[in-house]
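Input record (one chain):
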Amino acid sequence: MFGAIALGVLLSAVGLIAAGVSISYLTGAERARGTVTGLEWSGGGSIGRRGSSSSPSAHPVVEFTMADGTSRTFRGSAGSSPPAYEVGERVEVLYRADSPGDARINGFIQMWVLPLVMGGLGLGFTGIGTAFALAKRRHARVALPR
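The corresponding structure, as predicted from the sequence alone:
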C-alpha cells in the first residue's frame, strides 16, 4: 500500500512537471498557421500480451511559415489511430524562434495528454494506496483488545 502511494506521488509529480513544461512552452511560443502535409505511420504489427496485433498510429507532418518567412516542416509527437488530423487540414502551430525544430501543434492531444494521464494515474494510485492504508489502520484499531 505504501508502494502504491509512493508510485502515485511519483506519477503525480511527473504529471505536474509535464504540465509545467506545456505551460512554459505556451507562454514563450510564437504562433503560426500550418498545414498537415502528410501522415507518418509508426508502430503496429507487433503482437500484444493478449495476442492481438497493435494498430499503427499516425503522426501528422505539418508545414508552417515562421514570422521571418522561413518555411519549416515537423512531425507531431503524438500519434493516434484513427488519425487525429487529415492531410490538408489547417492547424495552429506553436514554435520558439530560437528553437523552431521543436514546433508543436496547438491541440489538446499534443499539449495536455501526457500531464493529464500521468496526473490521473498518480491521483488514482495515491488514492487507492491511502484508502488501503486507512482501512488497515481502522481494522487494526478494531482488532485491539480493550
